[in-house]
Amino acid sequence: MILFDTDTLTHFSYGNLNLLRRLEATGDESLAISLITHYEMSRGRAESLLKAANETELRRAAERFRQTEEMLADFLRVGFDDSAIEHFGRLRKQKNLKKMGRADLLIACIALANDALLVTRNLKDYKNVAGLRVANWVD
User: How far apart are CA 68 and CA 72, in angstroms?
Assistant: First the structure.
């Protein structure tokens, strides 16, 4: 399984060529996003709707929201099973991960539980998570 981090999914939505080339080479491997990534993408698009100052901005934000929802439907969504929850219990106790953002920690737990390759540009955010496989396909 290949699990996209939120930053990578954003680059995917904008048609990043490096990412698209790497995807072509993956074959039949499942492409997935975590429930956290789904939430972050939807929240960002919803905030654009709320911040629209005029009809033009609202129309543009509504179209981006629609496109994002269609794109998200193409990915397997992976949530919190017992294994991910157990990883969370273990990782949150590690001193070297105390500064890690909660969303990143939760995404790491889901990736570990599913033995997924986490595709992210934020390699430094995940570098201290033992056993987590990460790759940057964007740059």
Answer: 6
Cα 46 from Cα 65, distance rounded (Å) = 7
Q: Are 9 and 67 in contact (CB under 8 A)?
A: no
State the distance between the two ends of the chain, measured CA to CA, in whole angstroms.
21
d(CA 92, CA 60): 40
Beta bridge partners of 134: 118
Digit-coded pLDDT (tens) for 30-48: 999 999 999 999 999 999 9
CA–CA gap between residue 89 and residue 1 (Å, rounded): 23
Mean pLDDT to the nearest integer, 99-108:
96
Predicted model pTM: 0.91
| Whether the predicted pLDDT of 26 surpasses 90 | no
Q: In the Cβ-directed half-sphere of 16, how many Cα atoms lie within 13 Å?
A: 16
What domains can you pick out in the chain, each with its CATH number?
2-36+76-135 (3.40.50.1010)
